[in-house]
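Entry 14. Structure prediction run on the chain below.
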Amino acid sequence: MSVEATTTPSIVQAEEKMDTAETEPSFSLNNLEDPSPSKDEEDNIQLAKNYYCRQSTGIYHIVEVIQQRTNPRFNAIEYYVHYKGLNRRLDEWVDASRIDCNRKVPDGGNPLTNPDDPDNRMTRKQKRMHDEINHVEPTFADMDPATAAMEKEHEQLTKVKYIVKVLVGEYLIDTWYFSPYPDQYGKQSQLYICEYCFNYMKLAGTYLKHLDECHLRQPPGNEIYRNANISVFEVDGKKQKIYCQNLCLLAKLFLDHKTLYFDTEGFFFYVMTEVDRNGAHVVGYFSKEKVSAYGNNLACILVPPPFQRKGYGNFLISFSYELSKIEGTVGSPEKPLSDLGKLSYRSYWTYVLLEILGNFCATLSIKELSEMTSIDSHDIVSSLQLLNMIKYWKGQHVICVTQKNLDEAIHSEHFKHPRLPVDSRCIKWHPHPK
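Output returned:
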């Protein structure tokens, strides 16, 4: 299932729907083909049981039924399902007509099974492609005991995603994960969020009124970068606590392991915007600890779905390292990284390292590369290992680059020129006293 951001109807259209929005709760009706499934179907579906469920693509997949609720619009029961073996961002509310109660789910069965397939299995190539596309998660059995215990606890606390969509500016966005909005807001299926101050509302009428009253048109901090229509603002989590808390709550809808929601005082937020005549529109951000015991130069990073695949993630990562260079320090992102975070960082590290190795005639050590790039030595080693450009010899890592493997790496999928490079000359920033 793809997650897409679609342009919302105009405010005039939203206003025409205000009466409906204010008199009854809004529930997601995604893929609701039959709003009135039979009573027998509903009676047969039990919580914590596994069934085959039809995805929006038409393919059946084994799911676990986690929760149920009544949709007052059709007086029908909806079920919250988790697709076994897939990333939790694909979890969704479905009606009973999409759940096959008659098909028996085998014990330890392959979750990628389609009951309409006579062979009832996928080839290895199909499974590998399926895993890559859907970001199949490792099981608890694949983790060490301590990590597995933490993952289980986290999963229980964030198991059900009630907020299905958020309206932010001109975008109506499908959410990916649970976010701990206050209870009266957290149980809504859709929230209305101001794109400038990130205040959240339940009703379209309240939202429209807020738009008339909100005078904020840019992040409430210092502009430390401006190049053409791209600006970056530094916002102090202590001075602008409500703004940063609201930003974190929104970010959690798209980040599974984010834990910073309310304790923002120890962080700076670097907010990236696109500027036009209406204001500075937020397209992404990263947060950074004011004092990091582990030398992290980035705590959390997010580019919302409407602004992904534009090079903004790479820009923010590069910006974090430019700040480290100004500070004269070596940095690394806070771990663990999300699956998308890993891809973004791997792409950035690969590009930076290959650019230097391809244009530097002399032999370089790991330490020298780290000092030149502000990239932590462990991240350099892991990146060069993937490129087959490092060997372990006499107790230390040694960079081994030939023209052949350099050419292969530059033409590989890992090497990508940044769409939007950071111009360090446009940064107007000085390190904060520790």
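The longest helix spans residues 339-359.
Filed with the rest of this week's runs.
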